[in-house]
Amino acid sequence: MYIKVKITPNSRNEFITKTSIDHYEISVKQKAENNSANSRLLEIMHNEFPNSIIRIVSGHHSPSKIVSVDKKE
């Protein structure tokens, strides 16, 4: 399953907004440097989808990302 994520780095508060089944808006406290915001995004997505393999498919350097979520067998 593919999920579209709009991430806002360097935010005061972390929050997750699920706008639809496959769209999320996520704010993280980490800056968009040294891959720290992407790492935090993956941690948050692991909490939302436990027992899943999660990876960023596209948008590594962009605020709009596509994330792949596959169930572990």
Brief rundown of the structure:
This protein has one helix at residues 36-48; strands at residues 2-8, 15-20, 23-27, 52-58, 64-71. By secondary structure, the chain is an alpha+beta fold. It has a single domain (2-71), classed as YggU-like (Conserved Hypothetical Protein Mth637, Chain: A, 2-Layer Sandwich), CATH 3.30.1200.10.
Your description of this structure?
This protein has one helix spanning 36-48; strands spanning 2-8, 15-20, 23-27, 52-58, 64-71. With 73 residues, it is of the alpha+beta class. It has one domain: YggU-like (Conserved Hypothetical Protein Mth637, Chain: A).
Give the termini separation: 15 Å
Approximately how much beta-strand content do the residues carry?
over 45%
CATH class, named Alpha Beta
Any idea of the CATH topology?
Answer: Conserved Hypothetical Protein Mth637, Chain: A
Main traits of this protein?
73 residues, alpha+beta, Conserved Hypothetical Protein Mth637, Chain: A, five-stranded mixed sheet, 1 helix, globular
Question: Helices and strands in order, then pairings?
Answer:
Layout: E1 2-8, E2 15-20, E3 23-27, H1 36-48, E4 52-58, E5 64-71
Parallel strand pairs: 1-3
Antiparallel strand pairs: 1-5, 2-3, 4-5
